[in-house]
Design a protein that fits this description.
By secondary structure, this protein is α+β, with helices and mostly antiparallel strands. It is built from 26 helices and 18 strands. The strands form five sheets. Strands 1, 2, 3, 7, 8, 9 and 10 form a seven-stranded mixed beta sheet that branches. Strands 13-15-16-14 form a four-stranded antiparallel beta sheet, with helices on both faces. The protein starts with a strand and ends in a 10-residue tail after the last helix.
Length: 691
């Protein structure tokens, strides 16, 4: 049984980027674990640690040495190893020389292709201690760092300057260096609550010593929960509830090693400013958590997380209040200034902002979008005039002082200003809903006007850029057209809108007039249908199911989704594989025929075999049953009914020869098979489900 020791590595740095800390920590740990497994080194468990100034990993029960392994190298065949006189051939001598052995040391190995000469040896496993530096170094070199930096006179690069490297195996320092820093058994604690080096002799002591002597909570998840509970407790003390955004919580956690929650306040007069602007000021710029009262209204309080336990926390709170006051004052000033001009009056300013050099200004875009939104709204049962008005005002808030300062408030401020201007609530909501959904799982527009405007806004960009031959390529998608496509599909499907991609793309093209790309509609329909693939992958629906539906190219997204879900349910049936294989066979047979069989009827007088009579009877009966189901889009019920064809179809292929000499009988059987395939093709090409 091999011996084991615990391994600990900690990379100490200047403060790491807070939004990347968790990703860097996971990549660092995963890289080391993978290298250990690739090296054949087993261990009991691994635990990673991450804080603003460190990435660390502890491996418990790591084998101290690789296992010895048998190495086998295959040489020439026995026939080729000796000449006609039984002397070693040049091939044999060359092989032996390359291994620095004598030919007599080779063994014979019998294979189905004859006897071969092989060399077997035992390769001694390496000591783990000798491998650790390289493993850590390789993991660091593969970290997802977009831009590395240099420091001092060194040529080494990393995301931030290295300050120390702790690396111990058992009770021994792993000799060597990482990125120019010599390994040791010392770490450093909190920047303010600790001074000097802290010695770690055993990996098991790491968390405890760092906590007690260094005032650092090294465990990322423990520190995160401590912040969460601290924020919640502070909010309760103020009589409110803290709104804890997970992304903000992660960022704050990545900024603090010894987190201390502090409750601050601001003047109530700032509550007259739209809540979103206050939140943006506090969250984006100061990393504060905001509070809501029992009615869900914003309170004049905030919670900040200090990376220090002050002897006079009141001063720290006062400092934070002093910092946030001018930010909120700016927001209040911008809001009052913006209200002096309405959204309609701001439209002229959009004429100076270029949307895309070949597609005109943002003003031009609003003109196109307003007309397209009106057409879409009319189609889905909305108010066309409301949609047209919303389209004209859609981008006016981009030139407001508030959005120029807080860019993440576009759309949101449009809604607030629309209400102030006296626009309808439907229009006000739509000005924000035009940007929905912003990401996977995001809220969808709730109003018909918002749905029409969101689709129109995204589709205008798609048509325009495809129209000037600038679709997304590889990883380049500067106008986020992939997200726009998926957003359109999500809205149409989940809101069950009666829209056809061919129609809405044609409507959008008309707003542009002549485009460079004459094939824009066909290309864009194909592109958008392909976006369904990622959607269904996320729902664990196989690519075969998606491809079987896509082969029929249904261009109504709601209909497309119904078909996919129906085929996915059918795919799970016991009969599915046999029927898909039969469809594939039928497809191959029909593909070789020159005669057009569509619309032709089966002649019952030419049916002679019991199996073909049974199939024709069943097919006729089922066709009558499922046609109404197809007409109303109940594809799942239709396919479930068609699954009963498995036995008669299998029996037909077992008993009936299709390609007989009698031309009339052959054609009749081909017509029967064509009817079978045509029935399934009303949903999808299920032959593509066959493995």
């Amino acid at each position: 049984m091999s011996s084991t020791q615990d391994f600990l590595v900690e990379i100490g740095t200047e403060e790491l980027p807070p939004k990347s800390l968790k990703k860097l920590s996971d990549a660092f740990s995963n890289g080391i674990e993978k290298s250990l497994k690739d090296a054949g080194l087993n261990y009991d468990e691994a635990k990673s640690f991450a804080s603003p100034r460190r990435l660390a990993l502890r491996i418990k029960g790591l084998e101290t040495k690789q296992a010895d392994k048998t190495v086998e190298k295959k040489g020439p065949s026995k026939k080729a190893a000796f000449d006609s006189e039984g002397q070693p051939s040049r091939a044999l001598l060359g092989f032996a020389k390359s291994l620095k052995i004598e030919p007599e040391q080779l063994e014979e190995q019998e294979t189905p292709k004859g006897t071969w000469l092989v060399y077997r040896s035992t390769e001694a496993g390496k000591e783990t201690l000798s491998l650790l530096n390289t493993i850590v170094d390789q993991s660091l070199s593969k970290l997802p760092i977009p831009k590395r930096m240099r420091w001092g006179a060194q040529r080494v690069e990393f995301v931030r300057p290295l300050q120390w490297v702790l690396m111990i195996f058992g009770g021994e320092v792993v000799q060597g260096n990482i990125l120019g820093i010599s390994n040791s058994n010392t770490t450093r604690g909190h920047r303010f609550h600790s001074s000097g080096e802290i010695q770690i002799n055993h990996a098991d002591d790491y968390e405890k010593i760092l906590l007690e002597q260094g005032k650092v909570i090294a465990d990322y998840d423990i520190r995160k929960e401590k912040i969460r509970l601290g924020v919640q407790k502070s909010a309760e003390q103020a009589g409110g509830v803290a709104v804890i955004d997970e992304d903000l919580l992660d960022e704050v956690n990545s900024l603090n090693e010894w987190p201390v929650p502090l409750l601050g306040c601001f003047e109530e007069r700032f509550l007259d400013v739209p809540t979103e602007a206050l939140i943006s000021s506090m969250k984006e710029h100061q990393k504060y958590f905001h509070l809501l009262d029992k009615n869900g209204d914003m309170m004049p309080n905030f919670i900040t997380i200090a990376n220090i336990e002050s002897i006079d926390p009141a001063q720290v709170i006062e400092g934070n209040e002093r910092v946030i006051r001018p930010r909120l004052s700016d927001a209040a000033f911008f809001f009052e200034t913006d209200k002096k001009s309405n959204l309609e009056a701001r439209r002229d300013q959009l004429k100076k902002i270029v949307f895309q050099k070949d597609l005109g200004t943002v003003f031009d875009k609003t003109e196109r979008v307003s007309k397209l939104a009106a057409k879409i709204s009319q189609q889905i049962g909305g108010d066309a005039s409301e949609a047209e008005r919303a389209g004209k005002l859609a981008k006016s808030d981009l030139v407001t002082e508030m959005v120029l300062e807080f860019t993440d408030l576009q759309g949101i401020m449009g809604s607030h200003y629309a209400r102030f201007d006296g626009e309808s609530e439907e229009i006000a909501l739509a000005l924000n809903e035009q940007y929905m959904p912003k990401f996977a799982g995001d809220t969808l527009p709730s109003t018909k006007t918002g749905q029409a405007l969101s689709i129109a806004e995204k589709l205008d960009s798609l048509v325009g850029l495809f129209g000037i031959n600038q679709p997304p390529t590889g990883t380049k998608d500067p106008f986020a057209l992939r997200r726009a496509s998926l957003g359109i599909l999500k809205i149409i499907v989940e809101k069950q809108l009666d829209l056809d991609l061919n129609d809405i793309i044609s409507w959008s093209i008309k707003q542009y007039g002549p485009l460079k790309n004459d094939n824009v509609k066909q290309e864009l329909v194909t592109y958008m249908l392909e976006r369904f693939r990622a959607w269904y992958e996320g729902e664990n629906i196989s690519a075969e199911v998606f491809l079987s539906v896509c082969a029929r190219r249904p261009t109504r997204p709601v209909d497309f989704d119904k078909r996919v879900n129906a085929v996915n349910a059918f795919h799970a049936l016991d009969e599915a594989q046999a029927l898909s294989a039969a469809n594939k066979r039928v497809s191959n047979i029909l593909a070789k025929q020159d005669t057009d069989l569509s619309g032709k009827e089966v002649s019952s007088s030419l049916l002679t075999d019991a199996a073909e009579i049974e199939l024709a009877t069943q097919l006729a009966s089922l066709s009558e049953k499922v046609t109404p189901l197809f007409d109303k889009g109940d594809y799942e019920s239709a396919l479930t009914s068609l699954a009963t064809l498995q036995k008669p179809v299998d029996q037909f292929f077992d008993d009936v020869m299709v390609m007989v000499d009698d031309e009339a009988v052959k054609t009749n059987r081909l017509i029967l098979l064509n009817q079978l395939r045509a029935l399934f093709l009303k949903v999808a090409d299920i032959s593509l489900l066959s493995k």
